[in-house]
Amino acid sequence: MGIFDWGKKKQPAYKPPKAPLSGNFTVDQGAVEIRYTNFVGEHKTFTGDYRSAYILGRHVVIRVIPTGKRISLNLEKIENRSEVEPLVAANPRPSANERRILHYHLKRGSTSALFEQIRSKYPNYEP
User: What residues does each domain of the chain span?
Assistant: First the structure.
């Protein structure tokens, strides 16, 4: 490709904006509202399940409604951090080896003594 061929390059195809979020994920007793300021400075409110949330570095990872997808929110930009952080910190996260055992048995519907021991340690864990 020569220097004069750059002008002949194709433009990417236009992609229309995404449709509004939809889904059927609901939160019963573990609902928490998170007031958040994004990188543009917009104030947003997310409702998620604090039982599925965990802290990863400087971020909180949480499943939100209506889609049930996990999103990552910067702890420093959460406006009601004093309400959210204690709820999330109370959820212990299994180690990599414990997760491997949990996923193995949950995927197959099987059980073992070690699985039962780990499951009792993390009753609210969802892969």
Answer: 31-89, 92-127
Question: Per-residue b/e over 33-50, b at no fewer than 16 CB within 10 Å?
Answer: ebebeeeeeeeeeeebbb
Q: Report whether 78 contacts 72 (CB < 8 A).
A: no
Residue 34's closest CA among 70, 78, 67?
78
Identity of residue 82: S
The Cα 66–Cα 105 span in angstroms is 28
Measured at the CA of 54, the angle between CA 47 and CA 22, to 5 degrees, comes to 35
80-108 pLDDT, tens digit each: 999 999 998 888 888 999 999 999 999 99
pTM: 0.69
Question: 31-89 has which fold?
Answer: SH3 type barrels. (2.30.30)
pLDDT (tens digit per residue) in 32-76: 999 999 988 899 999 998 888 889 889 999 999 888 899 999 999
